[in-house]
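The protein record quoted in full:
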Amino acid sequence: IESHTGLPPIVLFTIIALLLGAYYLVSGILAPSQIGAAPLSAIIEEEEEEAAAAAAAAVDPPSIVELGDQVTLLELAAYDGKDSSKPLLMAIKGRIYNVSSARDFYGPGGPYAVFAGRDASRALAKMSFDEGDLCGDLDGLSSQQLEVLKDWESKFASKYPRVGAVKPK
């Protein structure tokens, strides 16, 4: 080893051990943590995909409705999933989506049932379950929160049929 590297074997192995230690330290710091809870958005996405798959296997999913424009928040509240004969709806930025395919997820007893039958824009932007955030009011949100909401809106638009809009105040 010394003839090829010019270093005594003990020095060479010490350098290799230090490099490996530095590699594992840096990769452990930069890699996502496997310990602790996953971010809310990751949990929502995973559970939503599972619920959509389960709903696709259901025999009689609720029919899709076209509510049209000018639906009041009170009218939207009737589609919160408590009446299983009605589709499950929720709104983001005033746009109403049929989320019936994820009834296990957004319906009664589901982990995100609080969003159903409401415009959940503020809650999604803030990643919050607080009752005061379960509304469409965007006043006072940071640019980062508005970006989070934009991501949610794009996800819902690509995944669920849009069936109407909330009547502006």
About this structure: Confidence is low (pLDDT under 50) at residues 57-64. The two ends are 80 Å apart (CA to CA).
